[in-house]
Amino acid sequence: MFRLLLVLLLLFVFPPWAIAAGVVPFSFRTPLLLLMFLCAVLYSFTRGLTSVELGIRRDNLVASLRINFLVSLGFLALLSVLYYCGCIAGPFYSVWGTFVPFYLFLSAPIQEFLFRGFLLAEMRASGIERGWVFVLVSALSFSFIHIIYGDWLTMLVTFLGGLVWGVVYYRVPNLAGVSLSHALFGLLALLGGLARKL
Questions:
Q1: Rounded CA gap, 198 and 195, in Å?
Q2: In degrees rounded to 5, what are phi and psi of residue 193?
Q3: What is the pTM assigned to this prediction?
Q4: Domain locations in the chain as residue ranges
Q5: pLDDT for 136-151, tens place per residue?
Q6: Residue 119 to residues 23, 93, 196: CA-CA distances in angstroms?
Q7: What is the C-alpha separation between 186 and 179, in angstroms, rounded?
């Protein structure tokens, strides 16, 4: 349990806090995410976690893609409601360029590895098997990393997304489906006006 708390503190709490507090410049967010990923991969290797335990698998790929497609439709409906209620500003096209490919192909899959695959494997290795504990810790950690944007709505939406992806991943542990869903939802959220500080 102490090991898990240390991992949570060093990997999931300290980096976003350092940016939000101004200790680390906001412009370092991408290298910091890559460093978090590298640390998690190295730690997983030394811990003896297998690719299957980390959600890198093919046996449940179709089920993962199917359920995450439905989740993506639900998120699209949520964004539409937020837009029509005036909670988000609407189209925000300045994200096009180098950020979008990075987000789609690296950032979203890396975040899913960290907050779903790695975290569930580490919690199970620490003796925590209750699904609701994983879902809650995963959603809180995932939401907290978005504190760097300084926007309560972004944190709320990412917490809700984290809850949904946590439940889906716990039931069908495959990173492919949640990564695609995350990438699609994140792109639509960025274009819709969430997290404009890029």
A1: 7
A2: 115, 0
A3: 0.89
A4: 2-192
A5: 999 999 999 999 988 8
A6: 25, 33, 28
A7: 10
